[in-house]
Amino acid sequence: xxxxxFALSKEAILFRIFLVIHxxxxxxxxxxxxxxGPAHLFNSTLIRQLLTGTxxxxxxxxxxxxxxxxxxxxHAVMAFLLGFIPPLMVEKIVLxxxxxxxxxxxxxxxxxxxxxxxxxxxxxxxxLCNFVFCLGFxxxxxxxxxxxxxxxxxxxxxxxxxxxxxxxxxLLLMTILFFSHLVMFLYAGFCMGLLSLNQxxxxxxxxxxxxxxxxxxxxxxxxxxTLLFMQKSGASGYRGEVSYLPWSDLFEQIKYSRMFIIYxxxxxxxxxxxxxxxxxxxxxxxxxxxxxxxxxxxxxxIFISSFIMIFTIPDSLASxxxxxxxxxxxxxxxxxxxxxxxxxxxxxxxxFGIISxxxxxxxxxxxxxxxxxxxxxxxxxxxxxSTFTKRDLVAPLNxxxxxxxxxxxxxxGAVSGSFILDNYEPTQGHFPLIWKKGMNPEETLxxxxxxxxxxxxxxxxxxxxxFDVSYFTGWCKAITxxxxxxxxxxxxxxxxxxxxxxxxxxxxxxxxx
Length: 513
Description:
Helices cover 60% and strands 5% of the residues. By secondary structure, it is mainly α. The chain has 2 domains: 2-372, no CATH class; 376-512, no CATH class.
């Protein structure tokens, strides 16, 4: 018995060591660049400016979204932390916390299903710094991290009776989950309901009824907010459309474990398909060797439901786009959760867990050089921020073909407090802030937010808003003799009305004369 306890504690220590290793990219790179992360950090800065009244420019252009969007948690946390912690450190804290909570939460849930699942819980490591995380989908990632904690909390409290204090905690957790991500909130309620129906029998009907009533109580604010959200916003998704991916594409993403591919699909799928093979083989062996577990059938229903969601939930719906890969990520995690109820031999679960962490370390090795390069680029933007003040309006012109550079200019606003005019969040309408009427710069300043060959019209912008663009910045602006009309127009504006104030190439900074 003592020897077994020592072995388990050794496994727990190793789990913590590998968790720290998985934090290294985020902790060592400042900033750690995600696609949307810079925009989220900048808009959190704007939220704080609006709440404190410290920026007349922000209050002239922006207002709080009257719709209570299920996309608030990450912004609220960052806006709060920005009151006493530097912006880049705030981003690091939030990203690190997501990784830690995800690892601990799903480990707790697997151990709650079966206390012998220590080694199997290592399968969560590849899901930490994944594609969705590196897209900067912070609110979804927070919801994904909170989901297992809610399930564990529900299992621990539902059968012993939920007292008033526990009901308040559950209500708070479910409401936070709604404001993190709508799909995660709805799926949490579904999973918790299934856990109440676990081991269904006539003798438990009264108890089940009581548990479902309690679940309805703690979910009521979120359900009400969901109905109000759907009434106000409808089902229109990213750029106002509801769209599905072809089934062939979805099956391909499952085949190659798409949630692990971040920067180059063709190159990385050679590695990521290994995880699909691993989990399929482990499932076959586990089914042959399995013994009965209390939550086995419930976990199977959760697993099957997540698979159905891949093909029934649109890729673009309500809160935005690129939904399918998020559901595929959820599906694979539910697959691991189901495996944790099969009570496979410890040798099999140990091998699966150890290979999972080895696979995850391989991905870190593959991705880190790219992440380091992106961080170096972002530092240049952060250094450029010293040029600007809180009174300046800055319009980034992005000529880079690298899609990860799309929102990098937002770091300048987060660091300096200046107002960055390339800001997709208020335009989308499903974030905390929206443009005031007539103040959206995309309507008058040109296509600079959506094109790597931008046309700019600062005079039209001034006529519409009453503000001048203080600075333009240029990233990867190539010297060319191309007589493209748009390029010639933009160069004429920059050469006539602005002057270069930096010697470096990235970013070139143009100040209004």
